[in-house]
Design a protein that fits this description.
Elements: H1 5-32, H2 54-59, H3 65-70, H4 80-111, H5 117-126, H6 133-145, H7 152-156, H8 164-176, H9 179-187, H10 192-200, H11 205-220, H12 224-229, H13 238-247, H14 256-290
């Protein structure tokens, strides 16, 4: 392959964007492996002189408070495993319910005929243009009146139903499925709900996986709403727990090495999702591009 100037420029731009994307993650990993007392003295280095895993053992709660201080920690504490469990529950509930309800609504808009269908679909699509901050106050008042503050139900309630993006995305895919398959099943006596479960969903694994992955990443990184609703430490998700860990400075400056170790561990579930569903996402994008 001949490398002409335009191709070389394109590769250079691609490598520059890749470096800008990867560098923050590299800084997180480098800081997490740096001893606490050397964080500032080795800040300009690409790799610590004496890498250590002690920061990870500290944030996982595998050492005592006194040992953490001896290692150079600030004395701040984060219940990392509990926060991870809360984040997994928070994300899992929302992804399951949102993918389920979005797929059912999308199939109704794609195949069923009912009065006001197009208007209702347009309203769902228009909801994507409404900033989330607009709904925070009414949602908070509703959750407070229901008595769901500091509960998992209060955290998941605003996100658990269908989303405008999910409905639009899945509806476009459902429209591409040949009607002959569904009509043949209906002639055999299958109801629309049975056609949806037995035919449409098995043919839609790629877009469903894409929606599940995108929703998982968004919910795993969600901060403001869980921070607003769940002040109790036992209900804190990982993003809120990391903020609480950063704000605890009993020894002066924040424990940057411990914070970066916790952040590096928090990235692992996202990487697992990418490994498991990345191929499905690529297939879905290729299909969408070919239409």
């Amino acid at each position: 392959m001949k490398l002409n100037p335009s191709r070389a420029f394109a590769w250079a731009c691609l490598l520059a964007m890749l470096a800008l994307t990867v560098m923050p993650l590299w800084v997180v990993l480098k800081t997490a492996l740096t001893p606490s007392q050397d964080v500032f003295s080795q800040a300009a280095q690409l790799w610590p002189d004496t890498p250590t895993l002690r920061n990870f053992t500290r944030v996982l709660g595998l050492v005592s408070h006194e040992e953490s201080l001896t290692m150079g920690g600030s004395g701040a504490e984060v219940h990392f495993l509990r926060a991870v469990g809360n984040s997994l529950m928070f994300t899992g509930i929302i992804v399951t319910l949102q993918v389920l309800t979005s797929s059912m609504a999308a199939y109704a808009f794609a195949r069923l005929r009912f009065p006001g269908r197009d208007l209702l679909f347009g309203l769902f699509v228009a909801s994507m243009m409404v900033p989330g901050v607009v709904t925070f106050i009414p949602n908070f008042i509703l959750i407070k009146d229901l008595g769901w503050l500091n509960t998992m139900a209060g955290m998941v309630a605003p996100f658990c139903l269908m989303s405008g993006f999910g409905i639009f995305f899945l509806r476009q895919f459902f429209l591409s499925i040949p009607r002959d398959l569904e009509e043949a099943a209906i002639l055999e006596g299958a109801s629309p709900l049975r056609v949806f479960w037995r035919i449409v969903l098995p043919l839609s694994t790629a877009p469903l996986a894409t929606l599940a992955m995108l929703t998982s990443i968004n919910m795993w990184n969600e901060f403001f709403w869980p921070f607003l609703v769940a002040k109790d430490e036992t209900q804190q998700v990982l993003t809120v727990a990391l903020q609480s860990f950063k704000s605890q400075t009993p020894q002066g400056s924040p424990d940057w090495s411990g914070l970066m170790a916790a952040t590096a561990l928090a990235v692992i579930p996202v990487l697992v999702l990418l490994f498991l569903f990345g191929r499905k996402v690529v297939e879905s994008v290729q299909f969408s591009g070919s239409k």
